[in-house]
Design brief:
Length: about 400
């Protein structure tokens, strides 16, 4: 852990160790929690660049209040141009040695930045001068459900078990490099010089705008390090993620997948990372089918992909054994070959089968001996709680 008092704020002019870019659009209910957890970091040597993307609530006033109180905060208002433009603007203004982007409606542990960079220093020191320089550090996230108040570790976004301990690159596990850490910028720190050298920017999209940036970084990084033990928190349950929407831009994910394929082919890497690419992009297609609720959006997805889009993405000729989940290959085959009505019927059948499996899994847990024992042990405290609530 770095000494929290080793270097103070950035108001005096010295470049900070970390810049946190926070794109903001109508995030007033959560913005103070976000700012407090950043400005209260044990690592003091940070810059917080808040790009207000045309908010119509009190977000901009809140940000300006924080900027008046703390010289580490830079507030940049702009017209509503979307999340990619807001993040890119923040990246342009970043002065830190390291860079991350965190959404305005999420939050993090107060030791997160210091813990991650302390681990980077330790890994580089123990590996010696011959070790590749860490360009990307990945850390775990937990989802926070605002309805239930529960936190759940998002293991699918931090699959470090596929890679060696210490500093690694995509070559250490080419089949898993794109599928192990999600598209997200908010569970990663990037060396700013590395970002500038490779001209990494987010695509001008409203959804999946971070895929090209993040996947390119994972493939180009001279060194990657996974750092467990401190968390970012991703708010769910209110349908509010202020920067996340799909129905209005149903084909943004497709444009992101096309750009990623172009990048990988252009770099000559497709032969080595093909399996990771197929699983990541195939999963992206299917997840967007799963979450689409607008009939016009669903039809747009079908028309684009059935009409040659899957072939353009290299998914039409993929073999079942190339997929971690062979059901994905079958669903993609139906999307490529079936008419629209047959495709919808098949998707409803897949959805019911998934629900049935999940229901059976839940019943198995509820009927297990350990669950019944746990309910018995906690029964008295729960009854006391209910009695107190009725008073």
């Amino acid at each position: 852990m770095r000494d929290a008092d080793a270097r103070r704020g950035t108001a005096g002019g010295a470049d900070p160790l970390v810049t946190v870019v926070v794109p903001v659009h109508n995030a007033a209910p959560y913005l103070r929690q976000r700012m407090d957890c950043l400005l209260g970091q044990t690592l003091r040597d940070i810059q917080v660049v808040c790009v207000d993307d045309g908010s119509t609530d009190e977000s901009l006033d809140i940000l300006r209040d924080y900027a008046l109180q703390d010289g580490r905060v830079l507030v940049v208002p702009q017209e509503n141009l979307g999340p990619a433009a807001a993040r890119n603007r923040g990246i342009e203004l970043a002065r830190g040695t390291w860079l991350t982007c965190m959404d305005a409606d999420d939050y993090c542990d107060r030791d997160l930045l210091g813990h991650v960079l302390g681990a980077v220093d330790a890994a580089q020191a123990s590996a010696g001068a011959s070790s590749p320089r860490v360009d990307v550090a990945v850390f775990p996230e937990r989802s926070h459900n605002v309805v239930t108040g529960t936190d759940v570790r998002l293991d699918y976004a931090f699959q470090s078990e596929h890679f060696p301990a210490g500093v690694f690159t995509w070559r250490d596990c080419p089949d898993r490099i794109l599928t192990s850490f999600q598209n997200w910028l908010h569970n990663k720190l990037f060396r700013a010089e590395f970002v500038r050298e490779n001209r990494l920017r987010l695509q001008d999209l409203h959804h999946t705008e971070d895929m090209l940036f993040t996947c390119s970084a994972l493939l180009l990084a001279r060194g990657i390090l996974c750092v467990d033990g401190s968390y970012a928190y991703y708010r769910i349950g209110q349908g509010s993620s202020q920067l996340y929407a799909t129905d209005a831009w149903p084909l943004d994910f497709y444009e992101a997948c096309r750009a990623l394929r172009g990048f990988i082919v252009g770099c000559g890497m497709m032969g080595e990372v093909r399996r990771s690419y197929l699983n990541w992009v195939g999963g992206c297609v299917l997840s967007n089918v799963d979450i689409m609720r607008d009939p016009a959006g669903m039809r747009a997805i079908y028309d684009a992909l059935h009409g040659g889009g899957l072939a353009e993405l290299g998914l039409a000729d993929a073999e079942p054994e190339e997929f971690f989940n062979r059901d994905d290959c079958e669903r993609l085959r139906v999307l490529a070959t079936a008419d629209y009505d047959a495709f919808l019927v098949a998707e409803h059948a897949w959805a019911f089968e998934r629900w049935h499996r999940e229901h059976e899994d839940m019943l198995a847990v509820v009927n297990s001996r350990s669950f019944r024992l746990g309910r018995a042990i906690t029964g008295v405290p729960r009854r006391l709680r209910d009695l107190l609530r009725r008073r």
